[in-house]
Amino acid sequence: MSNTERLDQPLEHSLQDVAVTDVLAPACDQRLYNFDIAPSRKQGRTWSSYNIFTLWANDVHSLGNYTFAIGLFALGLGAWQILLAMGFGSLFLLVLLTISGFVGYKVGVPFPVMSRISFGVRGAHIPALFRGGVAIAWFGIQTYLASLVCNILVLALFPSAEVLTEHKLLGLNHLGWICFAALWVIQVIIACYGIEMVRKFEAYSGPIILVTFLVMAIAVVIQAKGHITWEPEATRNGKPWALHGWDMWHEILAGASGWVAIYGTFVLNFCDFTRGAKSKRSVVLGNVAGIPVNMLFFGCIVLLLAGGRFTVDGKVIAGPEDVVHTFATPFLVLACLALVVLTIGVNLMANFVAPAYALTNLSPKKLDFRKAAIISGVIGFVILPWNLYNSPAVINYFLGGLGAVLGPLFGIVMADYWVLRKQQINVPDLYTFDPDGDYYYSKGVNNRAVIALVPSALISIAFAFSGQIHELNAFSTFAPFSWFIAAGIAFVLYLIVADRSRTFRDVDGEAIAVQAHH
């Protein structure tokens, strides 16, 4: 095979305390292939419907999601309106995540490799690095937010630690540095053991999270003596007001679309997890239990926490972390620990796996999942994420701009897989630079995918910045629906410019696959 460096030595992989020997396929180019990004064998996959459910049990209950949902409460939406917004959003997500998850199950590869199908063996770095870049920044920010909860825990147990909050270094007090560094180390260690350790962590932490939030909600209901404010009185310019008619439905649909936008990262690289799914049934059942059912539970918890606290003190809380202050010390400690465990779980699956695979994909010959995870963690540390979080310009422009591109990427990848190729994938050719390979395109890049990406990405970015840039105000009315609009435009554009003269072959990857315990 031309331009191919062959790799035929055995690879020792011992991340799960058991040495695993796989002979890497000699037909694959080591610049595109290693143990961690090779296809996973169908036999021996470990992700059951329960594992996929616990994935969502962690992620749906993230602190950021509570902030978003309680924001709907603060807008003046009542209980049934919030639940309806979540219901619509969960149905949209169920469809998107299922079709994305099926791709991972069939092909058995992580997102950067799956991107080679539509973008080419070199062009795949475009979607992979966009997804990974967003994740690294949010990994640091989420770790910082978890460290704030950890601060509360330390001060509750050791009041004398208050002295550590009196001085700052690079924008963070000494106690904050200690908590942030400790949480950073814990997450990096877990990630170094690979995706299988992430699966195990989520499996145990999921039920803990669900039980903890249920107990927190019950405690707030008791504090409110059973009186929950289901429809808080919102004010505008100091006068009472309420949403009615189209304004109400706009906010409901905007809230539903907002849920999809929040998971715009996850619908893109859900294959990172479903590549280890036991069956399509596992994907469907895990998604049904974890998304609509779990989101209904989540919505009820939001209403009880926000409505209960509103009854008690007339204030709309920002998130669960605002509730733990009101509990007695023993339960405050347990609640803080649960919130920390929750944030670690969310960070691992949403913000650690994607960049680890993206960096591994950059140089499979030199990097594996463990090394790439450490590099991702180091970058997430040195960017001093608390300064990013406290900078509206960074959040709105940098992360907002990067995140806006993910919708168009999803549209292109799904259009190529489901409509153009009709699920016919030649998996071995994903790992070769041979010019005759199915995914070599033009010097390794599918220029037609890039042509579809550029205008749709610019439109999506215009939506993202419509609230900050006066010249883009015309987009602001449709901004809540930008993910769908941009993904739809990219979907259509790609099908217009795609090369339909190509012959598509369906070849599984079992011949070059490794066991699923990554």
UniProtKB/TrEMBL annotation:
The keyword Amino-acid biosynthesis does not apply. GO terms for molecular function: nucleobase transmembrane transporter activity. Keywords: Membrane, Transmembrane, Transmembrane helix. It is a multi-pass membrane protein. The chain crosses the membrane at residues 63-82, 88-107, 128-155, 175-195, 207-228, 248-271, 283-307, 327-360, 372-389, 395-420, 449-469, 475-497. Pfam families: Transp_cyt_pur. It comes from the Bacteria. GO terms for cellular component: plasma membrane. It is found in: Membrane. Belongs to the purine-cytosine permease (2.A.39) family. PANTHER family: NCS1 FAMILY NUCLEOBASE:CATION SYMPORTER-1, NCS1 FAMILY PURINE/PYRIMIDINE TRANSPORTER. This is Allantoin permease. It comes from Flexivirga endophytica.
